[in-house]
Amino acid sequence: MVTDQIADLLTRIRNAHTAGHPSVVIPASREKERLLNLLVEEGFLASVESLKDDADKPVLKAHLRYDDKGLPVIRELKRMSKPGKRIYVGKDDIPRNRGGLGVVVVSTSHGVLADREARKLGVGGELVCSVF
């Protein structure tokens, strides 16, 4: 049993990149789907599709992106807020990842947003992860 579903998702993506897989299959949930769609919008993943596995359970298939040299587009993927230590920030305290080159994913009352979008809307929330 997995206690932290988001950490499991991030680890699956890291492992698939390390192994050079073109895609990774992840058990589905709405929160994971929102996070993966945000990574697609930000250009870190190629696409995401909802499927059913052999046992007819919903899964998400994330298609990974690689650059021209065959290296993963995602260089770093870190979980920030954890089940044992939640990290909440106000609109003025949202951190920047690598001076704005990376993305900090924030779970807000307006949904899962990139740090730039959360600052633009003037909302804070829980820091989910950082991507570079």
- Going by CATH, the architecture of the largest domain would be 2-Layer Sandwich
Number of domains: 2
Uncertain parts: none
| Structural class by sheet pairing and helices | alpha+beta
What is the average per-residue confidence, as pLDDT, rounded to a whole number? 96
Termini separation: 29 Å
Helical percent range? Answer: 25-40%
CATH topology of the largest domain: Ribosomal Protein S8, Chain: A, domain 1
- SSE run: HEHEEEEEEHE
The counted number of beta strands is 8
Strand content: 25-35%
Radius of gyration: 15 Å
User: Counting H and I runs of at least 4 residues, what is the number of helices?
Assistant: 3
Return the CATH class of the largest domain: Alpha Beta
Shape: globular
- Main beta-sheet annotation: 5 strands, antiparallel
